[in-house]
Design brief:
There is one protein chain. The radius of gyration is 23 Å and the shape is globular. The protein folds into three domains: 36 residues, Zn(2)-C6 fungal-type DNA-binding domain (CD2-Gal4, Irregular); 119 residues, no CATH class; 130 residues, no CATH class. The chain is built from 18 helices and no strands. Helix content is 62%, strand content 0%. The chain has 384 residues and is mostly helical. InterPro entries: Fun_TF, Sterol_Uptake_Regulator, Zn2-C6_fun-type_DNA-bd_sf, Zn2Cys6_DnaBD. Keywords: DNA-binding, Nucleus, Transcription, Transcription regulation. GO terms for molecular function: DNA binding; DNA-binding transcription activator activity, RNA polymerase II-specific; zinc ion binding. This is Zn(2)-C6 fungal-type domain-containing protein.
Length: 384
C-alpha cells in the first residue's frame, strides 16, 4: 500500500522537528507545545537573497528590530508586554507566586533570592514573569481567561530558555542565576498540563524523561555551585526532621494527612516483603528504587522528594519502565500517588492523577494477575 504523503512543515518549531511530528506553526507557541508545556522555539529561516534595483546591497531603512536587553536578539515572534504589565507580573511573583511555592524557612531563604537575581539577569526575570503569568492562569475562574495567561507564560518561558542557554555559553560564572532559572523552568514544565485543561493522554515515560532531563541540568549547576560533597540538594529536598514534619503536616488538609499515613504509606510498605520474597536479576534495582520512594513518601509534605524522584532513580530502572516491567511500573504508580498528595498546590494540580491514568492507559492490557488488585486500588485512590 503506497505511503500517504503529507505537507512538510518546513517552518515548524524545534521541538516538533525533534519529535518528528507536524507543527501547526502557531506563533509564539504551537498547539503541541502548549499541550505538553514545552518551550516552543522557532529558528528564523535564512533570508533569501534578492537583487536590489541599483545592483548594490539593500540599505537599512531602520525597520530592523533592535535587540532586547543584554541576552541578545529576541526569538522570532517574541514580543514583551508593556512595561507596566511586566511590573505588575513582577509584583505578583514577589507577593503571591513565590510565597505559594515556599514550604518553610529554608525554602523561603532560597526563593527570596529570586527577585534579587531577576533584576540583574534577564533570563531569571523572564522565567519569573512566566511563573507569575502561569500562577495567574491557575487562579482564573473564567476558563476563557486562561489561554491569554498561558500564552504569556509560554512566551516568556521560551525567551528565558534561550537566555539561559546563551548565558551558560558566554557567562559560565553566573551559576547561581542559571540554577535559579532552571529551577523555575522545572516548576513551569510540571505545572502546565494541570492548568491548561488539556485532556490529551499522558505518556508516563515521556513525562518522566522530560523532568529527568531538566533535573539533570539543575543538578549539574548545583554541584558546580556548592561542590560535590554537598550531594544533590538532600537537605533542601527532603526536609527531614520530626519538627519539620509535624509543623508541615499541621498546615496540610487533614484528609490528605490521613490518606498519606493510613493508606498510601502503609500500602507502599507492603511492597518490601514482596520484593524480598521474589529474588531475581532486578532485585537490587527494585530495592534501591523502593528506598528512594520510601524516603520521599516519609518526608511528605515538608520535602520536595516527589519533584526530584525522576533523577534519583537509575538508568536500569528507567529501562525496565520502558520495557513495561510491572514491578517497576508499580513504583511509578506510587510515585504518582506521591505527587497526588501535593495536588492541592497550584503548580502540581492533577499531576499524580495524570501519571497514574497514563500508566494504566498505556500498559493496562498487560497487568499480571498478582498486581491487578494493587493497580485497581491506586486508580481509586487518585479519584479521592
Amino acid at each position: 500500500m503506497p505511503r500517504r504523503c503529507h505537507t512538510k512543515s518546513r517552518r515548524g518549531c524545534v521541538q516538533c522537528k525533534e519529535r518528528h511530528v507536524k507543527c501547526d506553526e502557531r506563533r509564539p507557541t504551537c498547539s503541541l507545545c502548549v499541550r505538553r508545556g514545552l518551550s516552543c522555539i522557532y529558528v528564523a529561516p535564512r533570508p533569501r537573497k534578492r537583487p536590489s534595483s541599483n545592483g548594490g546591497s539593500p540599505k537599512n531603512n531602520g525597520s530592523d528590530r533592535a535587540s532586547s536587553h543584554s541576552s541578545g536578539s529576541d526569538p522570532e515572534g517574541f514580543s514583551r508586554l508593556p512595561r507596566l504589565k511586566e511590573m505588575s507580573l513582577f509584583y505578583q511573583s514577589c507577593e503571591s507566586t513565590l510565597p505559594s511555592i515556599s514550604k518553610d524557612e529554608k525554602g523561603g531563604q532560597f526563593w527570596e533570592k529570586v527577585p534579587q537575581f531577576a533584576v540583574t539577569h534577564d533570563h531569571v526575570m523572564d522565567s519569573l514573569l512566566a511563573l507569575a503569568a502561569l500562577h495567574l492562569a491557575s487562579e482564573q475562574v473564567d476558563r476563557g481567561e486562561i489561554p491569554s495567561w498561558l500564552e504569556t507564560a509560554l512566551t516568556y518561558q521560551t525567551h528565558a530558555t534561550t537566555g539561559l542557554r546563551q548565558d551558560l555559553a558566554t557567562n559560565p560564572q553566573n551559576i547561581e542565576a542559571s540554577f535559579i532559572c532552571s529551577s523555575i523552568i522545572l516548576i513551569l514544565v510540571t505545572a502546565y498540563p494541570g492548568i491548561c485543561w488539556d485532556d490529551a493522554p499522558t505518556d508516563p515515560l515521556s513525562e518522566i524523561l522530560t523532568l529527568r532531563s531538566i533535573l539533570s541540568g539543575a543538578a549539574f549547576l548545583w554541584i558546580q555551585m556548592v561542590g560535590p560533597e554537598r550531594g544533590w540538594l538532600d537537605d533542601w529536598v527532603y526536609r527531614e526532621g520530626n519538627n519539620r514534619l509535624v509543623v508541615a503536616r499541621a498546615n496540610e488538609d487533614t484528609n490528605l494527612v490521613k490518606l498519606h499515613s493510613r493508606t498510601i504509606l502503609m500500602k507502599f510498605r507492603t511492597l518490601a516483603p514482596i520484593i524480598e520474597a521474589n529474588p531475581g536479576p532486578n532485585s537490587q534495582i527494585y530495592r534501591e528504587t523502593y528506598t528512594l520512594l520510601l524516603r520521599s513518601l516519609e518526608t511528605w509534605p515538608s520535602g520536595q522528594g516527589s519533584l526530584v524522584w525522576p533523577i534519583r532513580v537509575s538508568e536500569e530502572f528507567m529501562t525496565l519502565v520502558q520495557q513495561g516491567d510491572w514491578t517497576a511500573l508499580i513504583f511509578v504508580l506510587f510515585h504518582g500517588l506521591d505527587r497526588h498528595l501535593s495536588s492541592q498546590k497550584w503548580y502540581a494540580r492533577d499531576s499524580g492523577k495524570r501519571l497514574v491514568h497514563g500508566v494504566i492507559r498505556k500498559f493496562g492490557t498487560t497487568i499480571p494477575l498478582e498486581w491487578m488488585d494493587m493497580v485497581d486500588w491506586v486508580g481509586r485512590v487518585v479519584e479521592v
